[in-house]
Amino acid sequence: MLAAIHLRRRRPDAQITLLDASGRPGTGAAYGTTDPTHLLNVPAQRMSAWPDDPGHFCRWLDERAVTAVDCFAPRLAYGRYLQEQLAGADVRLETAEVVELVPGAPARLALNDGRSLSADAVVLACGRPEGGMPDSLERAFAPVLAESTDGKVVVDPWAPGALAALGARRPAKVLVIGSGLTGIDVALHLIARGATVTLLSRHGALPRRFRNTGAPTELPSLDALPAEVSLDELRTALAADLDRARRNGSDWRQVIDALRPRTARLWRSLGWEDQRRFLREDLRQWEILRHRMPPSIADAINAAIDCGRLVVDAGEVADVSLRGNGVELVVTARDRSVRRFGDAVVVATGAAWDRRSLRRSALWANLLAADVASPHPCGIGVRLDAAGHLIDGAGCTVPDIVCIGSIRQGELWETTAIPEICAQAVAVAELLADDTRERPMRAPRLIATAPESTGAQASYAEGVRRLLAVQDGASVAFAAAVAEDPHHARAHVALAMIATERPDRAGGPDAVGGHLAAARAALAHGSDEDRSHVEAIATWCEKGNATGTDALIDHLDRVPDDPLALLVLAPSIAFAGAGDALPDAWQYVERFTGVHGEAPWYLGLRAYGRTEQGLWYDAADLADAALELDPGNGNAAHALSHVHYETDAHGAGLKWLTEWISSGGSTQRYPAHFQWHAALHELAMGDAPAAARRYAAFLAPPKSKDVRCLVDAGSLAWRARLHPDWVTPPDPMAVIAEVGSLAYAPQTPFIAFHALLVLAAANDPAAIRAIKVPGATDAQSATLRLIGEGLIALTDGEPRAALDFLLESLPGLPSIGGSRVQQEVVLETALAAMLQLGAPGQAARLLSRHRAAPAPQVTRGAVN
After folding, report:
1. Do 12 and 48 form a contact (C-beta atoms < 8 A)?
2. Fewest 10 Å CB contacts: which of 98, 113, 427, 537?
3. Long-range contacts, 77-82 (Cβ 8 Å, 24+)
4. Which CATH number is 197's domain given?
C-alpha cells in the first residue's frame, strides 16, 4: 500500500491497482486490531508514511485528538491513518488474491476468482504470512488440529475475529505460546477480560522495556568490520561496542538503536551458514533486546505478574491433547517434563516467510515451482537483488517484479517495521517511475508440463523416484524397465547398484557383474550422459567408495543434474551410509541447491545432512518441507528421527515415528531401521520391555537382513546387555548367521564397528581381535581396536580397563562413519563401565558433556 501511494506521487498518470484479499488494505494483521490498548512498538514521531515529512503522523493524531500513551499510538489509529493516505491516492482496489504470476512484457497475474490481469510492473508487498508456527509446534499440534477444537485452540490470534471469539468464551485460564510482543498483546487482551494467562516460550524471557535514553551511540568496532565477516567476529565487535558504551555511561539501548541503520550491511556481511547460525543461536536474544515494549505495556505486564494474573514459564511443547473442556500441553525443559492445562491455547509465536510459509501461499508456491523465485539460503524469505527484484532459480534477476516488506528479510534482516518499509516503498516508487531506465523484459513463459513417459522409461522413472524417496520396490521397477527395453543401460546399472548394496534384493552378489555387463553393452544405444552415468556408478559398484567417489564427482562435474549419482555419493541411510563418507560430503551436497532446488528427495537429503552437522532446527525445517511434498520421503523421516533423539524429545519422537511408520513410511526400503530408532526412544525413556517387544516383532532375523540386520539388530543385541530391564537380550548368533561374512570380514570401518558390537554380544573376543578392514587408515584401525578391547574388557568383568579403552576411542569415532546416534553406543558402554565402578557422578558429567545441547542464556520474569 505504501508503494502505491508513493508511486502515485511520482507518476500521477500511472494506472495503479492494489490487490488485497482481506478487503481492508492498509490495516493488515498489525493494524487491524480493534483493541485500543494494543500500541505501536515504535514512537509516533517515527511512524510517518512520508519520510520527507516526519511529523505527518503526529499532526494527524493531534487533529483527531488521539492520545499517544508515552508517545506510542494505538495500532488501530495507525490503520485508519494508512487508509486515509490510500484514499487520497486514486488507486484502483481489487479484493482478490493473486495465485499465479508469470513475468513478461506485460506480466500476467491470475486471481483466485478466475480473473486475470496484466501489468508492466508488479510490486509484491505481501506482509506477514498467514498463520503458521514453528516446526516442533506444528508437529505437536497436528493431531489436535485434525479434529474439531471448538475454539479452544487459536493458531493465529490476528486472524479476523479470532481474539474476539476467544474473549466471548470467557476462558478462566489461557496458555499463550510465545512471549514476544505478539504474546504480550494477546496476554494483556485476555487479562483485561478476566483470564489468568501463562506465557510459555523456549527461553521464558520477555521483551525489554522501551526507554528514551538519548541519541544512538557510536559503534567503532562494528564500523571497522570488513565487507565479509564471520558471526563470531560480529559478536566480538558488538560486545566491544557494548562495553565501550557502558564505560562511557551510555545505555545498551543506544547501542541497539545505533545498529538499526547498519543492520542490512552487517547482515549481508555474513555468509549464509553464519546467517543460519544467527537464526539458531542469537535470534531470541536479539528479539528481546531489539523489539521492546512501550513503558505502559511493560508496567501492565509487571503488575499482572505481581498479582498472579500472569505467569511466565520456559519450556518446549512436546505434546498437545484435548482434555474435557480444555487443552493439555506436555512441556519439556532441560530438567523436567510437566503438564499444563488451560481452557484455551493461543499460538502467538509470530510468523516468518520460511519455506513452509512460502509453500502455503499459492502465489509463492507457484513462483518457486516455476523457478521464477528461489528461497533464500538462510531459510527466511527469497533471494532478491539490492533493489528488491526477484532472483530466479538460475541466479538471474527477474525484471519488473520487485518486493518490499518482510519477504526481504533474508536479504536485509531488518525489514518488518514501518521506517524500513517506508524507505523501501519510496525507493521502489522511484525505480518504477523512472521511464529513462533500461527495462529488459523476459518473454512471457508458462510452467512447462513434462510429457508423460511410457513403457521402459516410465518404469525407470518410477524406480528412480522410489530410490530417491528411499522407498521399496525400486528393483521391481528397474527390472520392468529392462524387460520392456533390454538396452536400457541406466536401468541395468541401477539394478547393479542395488545388488551391490543389498544383495538380497536384486539376485545376489553374482547379479552385479551381470547387470554391469548388460549396462555397458547397452551403451551402444545411449548418449554421452548415459555413458558417464553408467561408468561412474559401475566404478562405485566394482571398486568401492574410495575410487567410486572420485568417479562420481567427475561425473557430476559434467552432469550436475543426475540425482542418482548424488544420492549414491551422499552418506545417508542408503548406499554410502553403509560405507566411508566423502570428506565434507554435506558441503558438497549443498552445491546442488541451484540444480535440484525444492525437489523433495533433495530437501530430505539436505535435512539428513543438517543432522550430521548438528543443525537440528535447520534439519527439522528441511525435513518438514520434504514430507509436506512427499509424506513417504525416507531421508526426511530419517532426519526427523535423529532430530527428536538428539534433542531428547523421546515421547514426541516415538509418537511421530510410530504414526509415520504406519502411514507415509509403510513402503519404506529400510523399515527395520525406523523400528530401531523407535526402540532407541523406548530405551531412552526407560521402557526396555517395549524395546524388546519391538525387536522381536520387527528387527529379529530374518525380519531384518544383510547389512541393515548387522547395523540395527546387531547393535541392539549389544545395547540390550547394557539395560538390566531387558530381561532376555536378543540372540547375537541369529544375527551373525543372517549376515554371514559381514560379521567376520567387514569391508568398511562402519561395518566393522557394528561387527564388533554383535561379536561382543556373542562374547567372541578372538573374532573381535581378528577383524581387519582392508584399506582402513591407521586412525580408523586404531579406533576400532580401542573399541574392540573396551568391549572385551567389559564382557570379561574389567570395567576400569573397558572405560580406559572406550574413552580413548571417542575422539576417533567420527572417522569410522555412521551417525552420532549409531556411535553413541560407545558412550553408553562407557557409562555402563562407570556405573559398574560406582561412579554415577562421573557418568553424569560424561553424558552431559557429550549429549547436552546449549541453552540460551536469557533472563526470565519481570521486565527491566
Report:
1. no
2. 113
3. 78/31, 78/40, 78/47, 79/26, 79/27, 79/28, 79/31, 79/32, 79/33, 81/49, 81/57, 82/1, 82/2, 82/26, 82/27, 82/31, 82/49
4. 3.50.50.60
Tell me how many domains the chain contains. 4
Burial-class residue 486 by CB neighbours within 10 Å (0-12, 13-18, 19+).
middle
The Cα–Cα gap between 42 and 40 comes to 5
Q: Which residues contact 684 (CB under 8 A, 6 or more apart)?
A: 645, 648, 650
CA distance 440 to 389: 13
Query: Residues 765-798: pLDDT tens digits?
Result: 999 999 998 878 889 999 999 999 999 999 999 9
Domain of 338 in residue numbering reads as: 135-208+292-347
> Given the DSSP bridges, would you call strands 122-124 and 397-403 parallel, antiparallel or unpaired?
parallel
- Domain assignment present for residue 303? The answer is yes
439-444, long-range: CB < 8 A, 24+ apart: 439/399, 439/400, 440/399, 441/104, 441/105, 441/399, 441/400, 442/103, 442/104, 442/105, 442/398, 442/399, 443/104, 443/105, 444/102, 444/103, 444/104, 444/105, 444/107, 444/108
| Cβ(708)–Cβ(673) below 8 Å | yes
Q: Are residues 166 and 304 in the same domain?
A: yes
CA distance 53 to 70: 21
Please report whether residue 375 resides in a domain: yes
CA distance 294 to 273: 34
Q: Cβ neighbours of residue 598 under 8 Å, at least 6 residues apart?
A: 355, 359, 368, 369, 375, 625, 629
Q: From its phi and psi, is residue 72 left (phi > 0), alpha (psi between -120 and 50) or beta?
A: beta
User: Each residue of 441-469: pLDDT tens digit?
Assistant: 332 233 333 334 458 888 999 999 999 99
> Against a cut of 0.85, is the pTM above it?
no
- Check whether residue 364 and residue 339 sit in a common domain: no
Task: Identify whether 726 is part of a domain.
Answer: no
